[in-house]
Specification:
With about 400 residues, the chain is α+β, with helices and mostly antiparallel strands. The chain has two domains: about 80 residues, Serine-tRNA synthetase, tRNA binding domain (Helix Hairpins, Orthogonal Bundle), CATH 1.10.287.40; about 300 residues, Bira Bifunctional Protein, Domain 2 (BirA Bifunctional Protein, domain 2, 2-Layer Sandwich). The chain is about 40% helix and about 25% strand. Strands 1-10-11-12-15-9-8-4 form an eight-stranded mixed β-sheet. A hairpin with a 4-residue loop joins strand 11 and strand 12. The chain is elongated.
């Protein structure tokens, strides 16, 4: 959420951010409600002061009159305040100065490309066919049980998933990230604090009776960990969360229906950091460097993409994606992302720290994907596939960095 004082003093900047992020919100209505709230607040505070004076003077009639006026004005103040807050929830974070202006992903910017796609001397298979042949993935029975975009992960693929988890927990633990498994259900009122639930096409699953929401990423339930608190101790506070995530995949009809690239349910590791505002850019670069280190240690070809304003989402001021090469599709596909949300989420959730002068300030929140495991499995299966000419069959090699966690070097 943006500070109302900042909005008043930077109307042009806010309107430009709304336009560049292609968000539909009535800023003039926000200003109108803000003016009403200020006027009502002054009147209510003045009447409360008069009521206290009347009480001290034991002026009963005047006290009754003021009480009646307050009974009329206070509900108006509550109503206007709630309407203003609801509209302000739809305002996006201001993009950082270095973010390119653009309407959608077609205007994102390739920053760099690392590693060369492997040239295979045999006819390759996609991850789904490999998964079926090696008894690793079963989407047909999953569809029978749960519908499309679900899968059963089996046998060595399960071991490989938890090898990835353990490897990243070890790596990121050495970098100061505390391991955490967060709730995957949270209250809608809390979920709104992260800024992902005001979009017109809400991609979240909601429970019917108790206004709970299933997280689409563990960030959504880790960021509120310090809600309404002053964080104690030194910053940054870093977490690496593992959770199952759920998305309706709204707007993706017909895209990536087969396989496990785009599913309603998937597991993911997420890096979260709470830091001082002046350390925010440094922390962002650190998280992005870790995402690149992960790709380099897996020896997967990748490219780094800078998101344009129209592809940032509501809470992010800056966002970079890392896309991994998928041989069967002959193109790069998103695997991780890294976002700086400045104090946007902290203001909504009231997360603060004490600066060196003892004054409470809002923290900055940052997030970066460790790995979306389903997509990581896709990349490993396809890029590490090989062919046994003697047995005339495909098999998959295990990335060297994961072999001590899997206990095997190949899946045959």
């Amino acid at each position: 959420m943006l500070d109302i004082k900042f909005i008043r003093e930077n109307m042009d900047k806010v309107k430009k951010a709304v336009q560049n992020k292609d968000v539909k919100v009535d800023i003039d209505k926000i200003m109108e409600l803000d003016k009403k709230k200020q006027d009502l607040t002054k009147r209510v505070e003045m009447l409360r002061t008069e009521r206290n004076k009347a009480a001290k003077k034991k002026s009963v009639e005047k006290g009754k009159k003021i009480k009646k006026m307050l009974q009329d004005l206070e509900p108006q103040l509550v109503e206007v305040s709630e309407a203003l807050l609801e509209l302000m929830y739809h305002l996006p974070n201001i993009p950082a100065k270095d973010v390119p202006v653009g309407k959608n992903e077609s205007e994102n910017k390739i920053i760099k490309t690392c590693g060369k796609p492997q040239k295979f001397d045999f006819k390759i298979k996609d991850h789904l066919q490999l998964g079926k042949d090696l008894d690793l993935i079963d989407t047909e029975r999953a569809a029978k049980v749960s519908g499309s975009r679900f899968s059963y992960l089996k046998n060595q693929a399960v071991i490989l998933e938890f090898a990835i988890v353990r490897w990243l927990m070890d790596m990121l633990g050495k970098k100061g990230f505390q391991p955490i498994i967060p709730p995957v259900l949270e209250k809608m009122s809390t979920a709104k604090g992260t800024g992902y639930f005001e979009a017109l096409n809400d991609d979240a699953y909601h429970t019917k009776h108790d206004e709970m929401v299933l997280v689409g990423t563990s960030e959504q339930s880790i960021i509120p960990y310090y809600m309404d608190e002053i964080i104690q101790g030194d910053l940054p506070k870093r977490f690496v969360g593992f959770s199952t995530c759920f998305r309706r995949e709204a707007g993706s009809y017909g895209k990536d229906v087969s396989g496990i690239l785009r599913q309603h349910q998937f597991d993911k590791l997420e890096m979260i950091s709470f830091c001082q505002p002046e350390k925010s850019d440094q922390e962002y670069n650190f998280i992005l460097s870790l995402e690149e280190k992960i790709m380099q240690e897996l020896k997967l070809p990748y490219q780094v993409i800078q998101m344009c304003t129209g592809d940032l989402g509501l809470p992010a001021a800056r966002k970079y994606d890392i896309e991994v090469w998928i041989p069967s599709q002959k193109k790069y596909r998103e695997l991780t992302s890294c976002s700086s949300c400045t104090d946007f989420q902290a203001r909504r959730l009231n997360i603060r720290y004490r600066d060196k002068n003892g004054k409470t300030q809002l923290v900055h929140t940052l997030n970066g994907t460790g790995l979306a495991i389903g997509r990581a499995l896709v990349a490993i299966l396809e890029n590490y596939q090989s062919f046994d000419k003697v047995q005339n069959k495909h098999f998959v090699k295990i990335p060297e960095v994961l072999q001590k966690y899997t206990g095997f070097k190949e899946i045959k």
